[in-house]
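cron nightly-structures :: item 1 of 1
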Amino acid sequence: MDQIILQILNGLDKGSAYALIALGLTLIFGTLGVVNFAHGALFMMGSFVAVTVSKLLTLSHKVVDETRTDFLGNPLQVDVPYIYDWFGEAAGNVMIDWAVPISILFAIPIMIGIGFAMERGLIKHFYKRPHADQILVTFGLAIVLQEVIKYFYGANPIPTPAPEAFTGSFDFGVAFGFDPNAIIYPYWRLVYFFFSVVVIGAVFAFLQFTTFGMVVRAGMADRETVGLLGIDIDKRFTIMFGIAAAVAGLAGVMYTPILSPNYHMGMDFLVLSFVVVVVGGMGSLPGAVLAGFLLGVLESFASMPWVIDIAPGINQIIIYLVAIIILLTRPRGLMGRKGVMED
């Protein structure tokens, strides 16, 4: 039982990332009808926002420390972050330690701006083009963004730690009545899961309970009719593209302590996230979230040692096997809508 609980926790952790990326993908496809293969790059760019903020907070200058000397007795020059000069050493240390959560404040406007630029500068020209054209151009854009990140940040992963308060692990064994240390799980992975639940809930609440969201949902169902009512639905869909980009970026920001950011991480998550979207049903927001968590849990169980001993490599292909089975039995996915991508 302790192993089952641990694998469920692992699955929810990875499924959170799948669900957040798939949610953004589905928002874009459901509103604009665009298959956006650059969405994984938005996840990657969000993670590098966290890297950049962390580096900026630790920028320093040389200061002579009279209390410390070298072996010759000369005062040492030490690096002092600029943030110490502005906010004091105590506050500066707190801000450096909490660099990843602080990055959220910068990631939201930056990712919305990137989303607007992508949609207005490129995507809008492919609304009425075949999906194959959309895939090619957005995939090309993803490669360009990937190489830009590689040029400025290098090819090696960049460790970006979580706040010190969340570096330990939670003993689930005691909470569930097992022996101590039977189920140990990192605090930050739990934070990521709850963060994803909050973001997903916020997106659904925005679409369900605000006038803007209601108009967007109506536009997703019948774009032409909403346009005939005098509503500028294109402008609202552009805003939704920015929101989808922000969701992907926030997923990347909070994932940096779990997986050190690198230039190809967007591609790694993109393919799996598209499988999640297809399994959940193209255009279905609840389907994308459900499939994200479901496939994350299945992948976690497939990674158990005894499962790999029976079927070597099954953890690498389990998601694709499940996708094949579901699409053979339910061609529209778990919660897909009739007529979506069936023309």
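cron nightly-structures :: done
The first helix runs from residue 2 to 32.
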